[in-house]
From TrEMBL:
It comes from Strongylocentrotus purpuratus. Alpha-L-fucosidase is responsible for hydrolyzing the alpha-1,6-linked fucose joined to the reducing-end N-acetylglucosamine of the carbohydrate moieties of glycoproteins. The record marks C292 as: May be important for catalysis. Residues 25-363 form the Glycoside hydrolase family 29 N-terminal domain. Belongs to the glycosyl hydrolase 29 family. Homotetramer. Its EC number is 3.2.1.51. It catalyses: a neolactoside IV(2)-alpha-Fuc-nLc4Cer(d18:1(4E)) + H2O = a neolactoside nLc4Cer(d18:1(4E)) + L-fucose; a neolactoside IV(2)-alpha-Fuc-nLc4Cer(d18:0) + H2O = a neolactoside nLc4Cer(d18:0) + L-fucose. This is alpha-L-fucosidase. Residues 374-459 form the Alpha-L-fucosidase C-terminal domain.
Length: 463
């Protein structure tokens, strides 16, 4: 095929995609391209059972690793941050551009097998890797991102594909991808924006082909959309794409999506609700939701200058996990690798520590469902989860006098209590059919404690 024919074929790609999407609106399709139909799709069961996942933000922004993953926008956008401007003036030549950072995004120490092993050790059931952030750089060799992808510049390898293969070969973790709908400085997007989104040049030539490409190539179990807020979902053609995803794609039966598909859609439409970054309502939510949050309190990407105080500790993380799962959510906990491809020790330590806690207490997290009460009304720092066979009280703070008051459970004559990781029944007192149980906590030495941070009371035959 000569170059003219190749160019003609490439020019037909947007048209072919429109045809793909149009097929989804046929009378025989299960899901139609409208929110009433899209929102009726049941959530794949694996996601609710999983409860805990790992988010990974990795890209060209990992090179400056200063301020946050929004470095480029905060440097060259409409409202430049003075600290970033000064950082660049002090450390880089005057004509340095953001694109110049890409050559230093080499990932020379990236070992996908090692990453997969660390992810497995965390106890997480799914992982969501950044395939493309708002900077537009794709972590796979996209046909639609010439010279701005991980094969043409920087790592010179398929980062998404390498990690996907390692995770699938070495673990039972579900592999997912984050993808930004918009790009800060893509001229096609900026032109559509200048046209008040009455044109879709960027969508036709970049967005839709990319989305089809990552779904068909990597078959992600999670498609985590972002960067939607500047334009309505009619510009992104979100319902048309989701109808194709749910009806005809290779992941149609297992894929989980979120709610970031257009301005005003968040917490209203789509799959799992995120309702904003670090959403942690502390109350039961009827619709399945996700708390996407960062171990680094400030940034999603790696920061070289982050002090220890900016990292959440294990008490913080387990409290977030317990409260999120109790209120019908999943916790998606983010780490930011370095530009050379390392998961730095503080992130690795948090991941492995979470895994150690889950080895003992995962029974109270995985495959649970919300109970009739989420937290205790008398004793602070207690969150409840439930299964058909038992109810669990996740106790964040050990009682000073070893007497734990649980005001919500209603015991019976058949009630029995245990601590996960401790084989002996627990002593307790209470009146059958009346709320309230007082638990005598076991006597432990530091080296015999089942776990270091929070402890789970398993209650059988309580109401």
């Amino acid at each position: 095929m000569d170059r003219r024919k190749i160019s003609s074929f490439i020019g037909l790609i947007p048209v072919l995609l429109v045809v793909f999407f149009a097929v989804c609106s046929s009378a025989n399709a299960q899901y139609q391209p409208n929110w009433n139909s899209i929102d009726s799709r049941p959530l794949p069961a694996w996601y609710d059972q999983s409860k805990f996942g790992i988010f990974i933000h990795w890209g060209v922004f990992s090179v400056p690793s200063f301020s946050s993953e929004w470095f480029w926008e905060d440097w060259k956008g409409s409202n430049p941050h003075p600290d970033i401007v000064k950082f660049m003036e002090d450390n880089y030549r005057p004509d340095f551009t953001y694109a110049d950072f890409a050559a230093s995004f080499r990932a020379e120490f990236f070992d996908p097998n090692q990453w997969a092993d660390i992810l497995k050790a965390s106890g997480a059931k799914y992982v969501v890797l950044t395939s493309k952030h708002h900077e537009g750089f794709t972590n796979w060799p996209s046909k639609y991102s010439w010279n701005w992808n991980s094969m043409d510049v920087g790592p010179k390898r398929n980062l998404v594909g390498d990690l996907a293969a390692a995770v699938r070969n070495r673990t039972d973790i579900h592999f997912g991808l984050y993808h930004s709908l918009y790009e800060w400085f893509n001229p096609l997007y900026l032109q559509d924006k200048a046209n008040n989104f009455t044109t879709q040049e960027y969508c036709e030539k970049v967005l839709w082909p990319e989305l089809m490409e990552i779904v068909n190539t990597f078959e992600p179990d999670v498609l985590w959309s972002d960067g939607d807020w500047e334009a309505p979902d009619t510009y992104w053609n979100s319902t048309e794409f989701l109808a194709w995803l749910y009806n005809s794609s290779p992941v149609k039966d297992k894929v989980v999506t979120n709610d970031r598909w257009g301005s005003g859609d968040m917490c209203k439409h789509g799959g799992v609700y995120t309702c904003g970054d670090r959403f942690s309502p502390g109350t039961l939510q009827k619709h399945k939701w996700e708390n996407c949050m960062t171990i680094d309190k400030v940034s999603w990407g790696f920061r070289r200058n982050a002090p220890l105080a900016d990292y959440l500790d294990m008490d913080d993380l387990i409290e977030l996990l317990a409260s999120t799962v109790s209120c019908n959510g999943n916790l998606l906990m983010n780490i930011g690798p370095t530009a050379d491809g390392r998961i730095v020790p503080i992130f690795e330590e948090r991941l492995r520590s979470m895994g150690d806690w889950l080895k003992v207490n995962g029974e109270a997290i995985f495959e649970t469902r919300p109970w009739r009460a989420q937290n205790d009304t008398v004793t602070e720092g207690i969150w409840y989860t439930n299964k058909t066979t038992a109810t669990y009280a996740i106790v964040l703070d050990w009682p000073a006098d070893n007497q734990l008051v649980l005001s919500v459970p209603i015991p019976s004559s058949q009630t029995s209590l245990f601590m996960l990781g401790y084989n002996q029944p627990l002593k307790w007192s209470g009146i059958a059919s009346k709320p309230g149980i007082t638990v005598t906590m076991p006597q432990f030495t530091p080296d015999t404690l089942p776990c270091e941070w929070a402890w789970v009371i398993k209650m059988k035959m309580v109401q």
